[in-house]
Protein 1
Amino acid sequence: MKSGKDVTIYDIARELNISASTVSRGLKNHPHVRKEVKKKILSTARRLGYQKNKFASDLRQKRTHTIGVIVPRLDSYFVSTVISGMEKVANKAGYNLIISQSQESAQKESSIVTTMFNSQVDGLMISLSYNTRNLDHLNILFRKKIPIVFFDRVCDHPKCKSVVINNYRAGYEVTEHLIKQGCKRIVHLGGSLIRNVYNDRYQGYRQALADHNIPHDDKLVIISDLSNQSGRDAARRIMGWKNLPDGIFAANDNSAVSAICELKRSGIKIPEDIAIAGFNNDPVSRVVEPNLTTVHYPGREMGEISADTLINALNQSQSEILNSIVLSHSLIIRESSRRKSNHV
Amino acid sequence: MKSGKDVTIYDIARELNISASTVSRGLKNHPHVRKEVKKKILSTARRLGYQKNKFASDLRQKRTHTIGVIVPRLDSYFVSTVISGMEKVANKAGYNLIISQSQESAQKESSIVTTMFNSQVDGLMISLSYNTRNLDHLNILFRKKIPIVFFDRVCDHPKCKSVVINNYRAGYEVTEHLIKQGCKRIVHLGGSLIRNVYNDRYQGYRQALADHNIPHDDKLVIISDLSNQSGRDAARRIMGWKNLPDGIFAANDNSAVSAICELKRSGIKIPEDIAIAGFNNDPVSRVVEPNLTTVHYPGREMGEISADTLINALNQSQSEILNSIVLSHSLIIRESSRRKSNHV
DNA sequence: GTGAAAGCGCTAACAT
DNA sequence: ATGTTAGCGCTTTCAC
């Protein structure tokens, strides 16, 4: 397949009448090599077209310089921003990323972990799938002490670090905003409560209601997979109620957007009849009419910081104490929740 | 970092009083090992928790079983579908994917190619960045005979295969559809004509006009990077004309959608005043109002077939003749171009 | 059908 | 500051 003879450090050594070890050292800027020799090594390496053999180097060092990344799905603006941040940091530090999508399935996630383990990733960054219930599938990694960083959809684990936003506060802020727009019966379109992001947003919603003396009503909480279909379904279900709600806080923009489309189709006015807010600041939030109130997430930073954290762990240059990093978010208010009569 | 002693084939060999070579053969189902022995090897391997050392194996075989994938960007429904198809096929064949986004920059693309070359990918699948002008950056791969498969945004090269849809026909069909809706002055919002996908769509547009005896007008062709911003800009520019067009064919959904938003903001009625069609069938095409007429792309299949093609090339089990694979697309007609008065 | 032996190219401990 | 040496764990001739 590949063409025959690659240039090795031995070729360079022979050429210069020095030993392979010196070449090896020179190539990686080891302090115990004279400047002069180093220069010669570098120049003959270039002249001969030398290219380091990653296999051999990896074999010796027992490191692949490869980091696994598992995301629920790739087709989201947020995720791709995160990845681009990770890539930047990882590449700068000499690491490659192996990226895979769990497609929101715990089973696929588990099989990806195995694959990544088999291909000997040095570390793993993971945002859990929608229905992952435990971390058993990560045990093979724990056993080998392969460091893991959770981001966004995290899970507490004594040995792992995680990078998140404060979903509780964000959920609180969204709900409070809706309340200030005059909403009294606010539906929460939530995701699975086993995922921190959705549970925290839900708790924030509950707390905001409580703090504003609005009684909580379990019937107003609709849990789904937050897909477009679920958004539509939820909208239909709501329209079947005798007593329509006057606000909806959806845990992602996708479901909020499809709910809006469906509600409008039935003649419901947004935000006059029902004020709506989403979560994520997906580009689609600026296409839907009316434009969607949402929460902005620092995706790129989340990626950069996750990668930094993991790489530090790989270099053991990190306090064991560090457990969780929280980034800041921001509420973006748009027409879908702004009531004309409102003076706040 | 990693815990000390891994189980090797030597451990298994010792345990069974056979040689490491036999173990190696047994593990990979070599025909020259007795069934009985093979079974024993497998079972002790499992018992001891053996896990093949990829470095050593790669070093011997001079293969990483890793395939590089370069895409312009990850945050698109289409791209993520393609990747998921690639992953499925690649993993089944025992390959890992290293995925990277060029961010539409030729320079970034070039540096990614270098990185991937350095990490010794066995092959590469690439969809070219917006402004890649030549294939020089791929030369290091050509020199080492590392097989390359282009997909979607391709480039003719005698040594490479490519997987595409018939963008010319699709462009023709979209334009013809607009003409049949009564459009006579159709703007084309195109991408860089150095990229096959955009050039072909443009040529299809030209041909459809010609076939329906509509004179071509260069002023109606607006070339841009097809970003949201460009869509808005184009819309504004169009509205400055004395003579408004009655149709727009945009080369992607993104720019079509932002153009629609901008046009509507100025009170222009879609499709009555201007009928609009996009390209890609991005989910946003079903959110914008009116829903966008577009062309559907078989993303997953494109990914699967690209991976298949590359893997066949890696196994040399492929005719050298095969050069290009064309998948079928379909025109999806929605409200943004459907004129009520139309009876077709 | 199985084993012995020779590396793949690089690195690091040790010696000088 | 440089060289010697001994592998890393696996695969693959080549013998038998």
Note: Residues 115 and 121 of chain A are 9 Å apart (CA to CA).
Protein 2
Amino acid sequence: MKLGKDFYTKRATELAPLLLGKLLCRNIDGKIIKKRITETEIYFGENDSACHASRGKTERTKILYEEGGIAYVYLCYGIHHLFNVVTGLKDFPEAVLIRGIEGYQGPGKLTKFLNIDRALNGEDLVNSDKLWIEDDGYVAKYITTPRIGIDYASEEDRKRLWRFVLTEGELK
DNA sequence: AAAGTGATCATG
DNA sequence: ATGATCACTTTG
């Protein structure tokens, strides 16, 4: 079942674990790939010093302020595209970074595999025929850890357990 | 351990 | 216009 608007308007803190085990679906020139999400991270609001919106709304970050259910894709370190799911309500900047799918651990690796780049920034995940997410009833078990690659953030924000890694699960 | 790589943002 | 920064990956 394809995930709808009501799923994405939940808070990122609630959605990050819920996205584990869901199927990330991509249509590339008619070839459809579906892979289970294995790793996610929360970026939550202007008060989160690791979140891109921590320095306010800009041309790049304005998309985080939209209502949940769209893609936020940006180029990191000049090389890697990173894919986030914008979540929550309009005017509050929050998103969940997809860090891994089956067989492709690493946020830059999965976007390369799925051909996700800035052309998909702002893509509507609820209505898109190119990029969407499905729930097939998989129930996930997971662990939490601090987030990766945010040494520049405040100590308080660095130690938050906002990374979620799938350990096991089953179809129900 | 460190390079490679380029969009973005703050400064001038 | 310029320079610093950066939610990563690969190589040695």
Note: Chain A has four helices and nine strands.
Protein 3
Amino acid sequence: MRDRPNVPIKPAVRRTTLAVDVVVLSPRADALAVLLVRAPVGAREKWTLPWDAPQPGEGLEDAAARIASAALGTAPAYFEQVGTLSDGRRHPGEADVSVGIAALSPASADAPMEEAEWFPLAGLPALAPRHRTVVDRAAAVVRQRVDQSPLAFRLLPPTFTLSDLQAVYELLLGRRLHKASFRRALQASYLVEPTDEWHSEGRGRPAQLFRYAPRKRRGARRGVRFDLFTE
Amino acid sequence: MRDRPNVPIKPAVRRTTLAVDVVVLSPRADALAVLLVRAPVGAREKWTLPWDAPQPGEGLEDAAARIASAALGTAPAYFEQVGTLSDGRRHPGEADVSVGIAALSPASADAPMEEAEWFPLAGLPALAPRHRTVVDRAAAVVRQRVDQSPLAFRLLPPTFTLSDLQAVYELLLGRRLHKASFRRALQASYLVEPTDEWHSEGRGRPAQLFRYAPRKRRGARRGVRFDLFTE
DNA sequence: TCAATAGTGTCTGTTAGACATTATGGA
DNA sequence: TCCATAATGTCTAACAGACACTATTGA
């Protein structure tokens, strides 16, 4: 241990305004979609992310669940922070710090409330700059985590076909996957188990339904993956 | 587009107090270490994470740089948010929302200021519960990102031996790596380039020094890696 | 029967990990 | 010389991706 100072650090807290911005993501019409709500921005109404300030005593994830539920009609299955922004208040009544939270909602979830609507990620209307940033970060975080965390299962109903699962992975990763390799890797992962049910969707052979049921498994491969670096 | 509601959502902002907690990480004595400072906690002095409220107009990362510099004497090379906590104010003068930020400082950085000290992650003194959480999250985030982002190079001086680099990876991953495989993967990644210098450290053959110099490279492998799931 | 989708077996090129070997310094 | 560390070559088992094939439904 070293000498103690005689000028201890004693920071002072400062008042600020806080908002929680929620990016509810769900696969809709073969694209990853974001839930937006109609809300007044200045004098007019525009589409914006659902947001609100946390209530006293309410945690950030609790606030996100409440905010998402108000737009979706039901609570999403999964929440994850995607970053806190402090770009300063631009207009009176706006917050100067906002916590961005991504939420995942299965494709089977009910239609949104009347004042809300799904928009594909690639075709969003104009958003406030901060909301645009939060959406981009949410998409990036979800895409980055998809093969390190079982996120994909939060975008599917409790039972699903392996083709459904692969389609979600392809949505999140933004590229096609090889069917046989995908199933081999999935088999080795012990993440799903088959059910007794089959799903028939018009033409073609019916597909067996699976459920998410992670189990113990042998040690994963160990190598360092430099090749995932993006920069 | 659907019917517009006649009860638009208009959330109200609310005043809150904000803190930035900084976890400066650096490899020290063959372990990943955290920088702590002496600061008053209630009536006594304890070791705590460096923290402060952001100043008016100051961004969160700017605040983290200022806070870390005050304890370290120099600014860390890299910052990354690890989560925002809102577990409620427990004592007067404490913040009720805190943004946790991890900072990486190379092993070669100068000794910390007098009121600060490095502690190995495994041997930290008792911290406030919120600070303990932030430290754990910082360690988890850094360990998770190490093979998706060139974090390891932020923990090394500008030039380093491949054994140094491997040691940092082993610290972050918490396991030993195979030397030949490590170098093969590194070679294929085009992340480093050799310099003309060699480093001799007592016994043994001198090692060539390398520097971080990422370049273009062929497409990365494409498979889905279910086996990295932790849950 | 054809079309469409589900699901599987086999081959091959690539690579992680193991092992062995050489290289080069200090004691 | 011995020891310690650096650096590299070779072998093998495992695996990703490609391809081909069978299976099962509706039209």
Note: Chain A is about 25% helix and 30% strand.
Protein 4
Amino acid sequence: MPKIVDHDEFRQELLEKYFDLFAKTGYLNVSMREIAAQMGVTTGTLYHYFPNKNNLLEELFYMASRQDTSEALAKIPNNATLAERTKVFCEFVEEKEVYFQDIVLLTIDNFRYKYLADHQDFTLINEADNHYGNKIAEGLELDDKYGFMLAIFLNGLVYHRLVFPDSVSFSEQIQLFQEMFTTFLQNENNIRKE
Amino acid sequence: MPKIVDHDEFRQELLEKYFDLFAKTGYLNVSMREIAAQMGVTTGTLYHYFPNKNNLLEELFYMASRQDTSEALAKIPNNATLAERTKVFCEFVEEKEVYFQDIVLLTIDNFRYKYLADHQDFTLINEADNHYGNKIAEGLELDDKYGFMLAIFLNGLVYHRLVFPDSVSFSEQIQLFQEMFTTFLQNENNIRKE
Amino acid sequence: MPKIVDHDEFRQELLEKYFDLFAKTGYLNVSMREIAAQMGVTTGTLYHYFPNKNNLLEELFYMASRQDTSEALAKIPNNATLAERTKVFCEFVEEKEVYFQDIVLLTIDNFRYKYLADHQDFTLINEADNHYGNKIAEGLELDDKYGFMLAIFLNGLVYHRLVFPDSVSFSEQIQLFQEMFTTFLQNENNIRKE
Amino acid sequence: MPKIVDHDEFRQELLEKYFDLFAKTGYLNVSMREIAAQMGVTTGTLYHYFPNKNNLLEELFYMASRQDTSEALAKIPNNATLAERTKVFCEFVEEKEVYFQDIVLLTIDNFRYKYLADHQDFTLINEADNHYGNKIAEGLELDDKYGFMLAIFLNGLVYHRLVFPDSVSFSEQIQLFQEMFTTFLQNENNIRKE
DNA sequence: TATGAATGAGAATTCATTCAT
DNA sequence: TATGAATGAATTCTCATTCAT
């Protein structure tokens, strides 16, 4: 009798472990042997669930892109002001900074793998991005371009503090940005979506 | 007397060639053999000029940070307003967007290399970052934190458009940011350095 | 189930093959590629069984020290006189002279490898040496210092004839030494262990 | 005008430096670049004085083999007893133990190089050995075989303490050996040369 | 004489992947 | 399903030697 294992569930389990373990080291810099060892399976088993290393990376990216926006949206109270809405996103990222650093690194790895593999299609990757931008805009009740603007600044901050730790203060920078962002947008009547 | 070659000058020449050739592919993904071949030298020669691959990366990064800032600062006219000053930096990055995407990738590679090598000191890399931040602040005639803020947004934008090409318009985003940034800072009398 | 191979047994098999093949040439002068080729495996396989070249040397040395002493001790008859006991060790080395020349070369290689690697600890190598000294003393039923004395002379002889072949006669030298050694020790009542 | 340099004298100077610097590391394990650097010359210059690396080693061995025996012989007083004569050699080696360890290592390297190079002639190497043996016998006023015996034991002791530091006491071992050696030989009337 | 840039084969080691069991 | 032994090309880096100057 074979072990009773739900194939997809186990795949998911492996992916989550992989994500936590290897972001900083670089997904591409970790050998399949190491991945397998850390996950408590053998290389053979790993290949049973993922046809090759690139596929593992792709799946990982896909998984990560599905998470988190809904979590942030849920934190926005009813009838919140723009300042309050902005604050929710900023604090969400601040609290999960390390996680978002991992996302940045994963995204770069994924980009590289795609780029290396002869400019393969970026459908998945762009879809994931749109997802983020749209959801933030939706949360802010603003036009998409302002959703992206906030996303860009937060990404920039996460990236910056990843590669240059301690060069800037997270809270100082987001406080400044929030002030600037909300002041600016409140004065522009036309920017609000109907 | 040996063959007439200026050691430092040739190093520089190699660095520049290398930078042009390989940024997109990922510095870590290109083997020293390939690098040498593309540069028209042998591996032995390459190692004559750079003790190891890590050093090649570091030197490249350091070189870039010095060049960029002095080039950008030179573009600021005398008696320029804050809006004009900000514009110089934004346009500088816009014009050289592909170049700065390479810098982002190089920075990540450099980070990973250091991180892998047992959390080595990031002195050089942080120094380069501070240099960017300080020089931008100097160009803006503002406090350092605003220099970093602009740097963070521009980095975020470059990163974003690198991994999610065409998701946002560079010019739209910088236009919005410039407005927001200058409007906000002009109203705050206290932020201006004496 | 994997391919049926007893990991430890195959390691041992490889060690023995290696020992026979390469002692004279110098363990360090043979590349891992050559070793693998001569053993009929690939480099990958070799590294599957030994983490690095250094470890291969160490294991080899350790293996040798255990085998030799137990083999020699087994040859000592019950109720043997000191002269007979001494003779067993001398003849053991004489019979396996070429083998012990290999051990000398291996020992030097091992020493150098350790010395080069930043004066690493010589624990294993010293343990092996103590083992030799103690076991010889045990076989002679004498104090350790006399065990080492015999070991030193035999080592000296092996070394001498290795680098200066035919300069002295093995049998002549050990005959002289045995006479001298046993005559001397029989007159010293106090040296015998109770 | 060329620099006034006595070719042979400079060769000699280089050899002596080389001997001191690289014994422990292994003459063959040091690159020509390192040798040159440590000697304060360039590789080009080094090759001006020695046609290749093997020749450097050979010359080094030749140089070493010419030294020292005369120095030891000079220390023997007139009308010295056998015990006194033996003592001179033992103490000579004890005082210069590190130097003799280097000689052992050099001899092994030389042997290996000869052996590797298709069993080249060992003339030089054997000549050097005979030189040692004969001179010791001459100093002891005994038959050559006893000269070699002492040489073998001293070599054995030096070798042993090189690779197994602190395993035995130099002075204890030579004291024991001297007693044994002289007691034995004084009782054997026939061994004395006429 | 002396320099040191250049060479390129070869070193140890790693690694994604396959496949017999 | 699961194992882990086996593969062999690729990686970073070293080094004795040559040679234009």
Note: Chain D has a mean pLDDT of 83.
